[in-house]
């Protein structure tokens, strides 16, 4: 196991990281039971919280993370499925991660026109009363938050006149309302369409590579 001390710690704890079996650098994969050692430099970084049930077999999401891995001074990448294989989220740890960063990005593939189940669990459990909303709940007040999503369906099909008669922005509206409710400084979303076309699309790898570079520039501009 690779031990890594990340510049994102909070409350005197230390994160353990391992990239074994994912094809990603070790610092991208944080295990449960670990926590965080605070350094002020993390407050200038963006926390990218990844919700992908199998990042090791991912194409688009993994390519995005590989791009961000080139800039460890800018981004802290936290894979929730990798961190909690038993599905038991450490709420205090997640809240500490958010508190340690200036910006937060929620990255996920669109699943059945919604988010993966563990992302919904994260929202339900981590955005708690007294922390994210309600009396004293100001953790996200004016904190910049953005969504980054990959969609299997092509962009042309995500239009009012398209195959599904709905836009991706419309599908993501509940998340926008959630961010508004907790007082976050909600930013526009970044998307990659047609993820399921990979094997049959000529030039797919090049299009994905361009998307990864654009994604990093999107995050840098938050």
Model description:
The protein has 222 residues and is an alpha/beta fold. It contains seven helices and six strands. The protein has helices at residues 60-68, 80-83, 91-99, 117-126, 168-171, 173-181, 204-220, and strands spanning 46-50, 75-79, 103-109, 144-150, 185-186, 190-192. Strands 1, 2, 3, 4, 5 and 6 form a six-stranded parallel β-sheet that branches. Helix 4 (117-126) links the parallel strand 3 (103-109) and strand 4 (144-150). Helix 1 packs across helix 7 (204-220). The longest helix has 17 residues, at 204-220. It is globular and about 50 Å long. The two termini are 34 Å apart. The model is unreliable at 1-18 and 26-40 (pLDDT under 50).
Whole-number radius of gyration?
Answer: 17 Å
Q: Distance between the terminal alpha carbons, to the nearest Å?
A: 34 Å
* Average predicted local confidence, pLDDT: 85
- Helicity range of the residues? 25-40%
List SSEs in N-to-C order: EHEHHEHEHHEEH
**Beta-strand content estimate:** 5-15%
Low-confidence stretches: 1-18, 26-40
Instruction: Output the number of helix runs.
Output: 7
Q: Which oligomeric form is depicted?
A: single chain
Layout of helices and strands, plus pairs?
Elements (H helix, E strand, L loop, with lengths): L45 E5 L9 H9 L6 E5 H4 L7 H9 L3 E7 L7 H10 L17 E7 L17 H4 L1 H9 L3 E2 L3 E3 L11 H17 L2
Parallel strand pairs: 1-2, 1-3, 3-4, 4-5, 4-6
Helix pairs in contact: 1-7
Keywords:
222 residues; alpha/beta; six-stranded parallel β-sheet; 28% helix
Summarize the structure.
With 222 residues, the protein is α/β, with parallel strands linked by helices. Helices cover 28% and strands 13% of the residues.
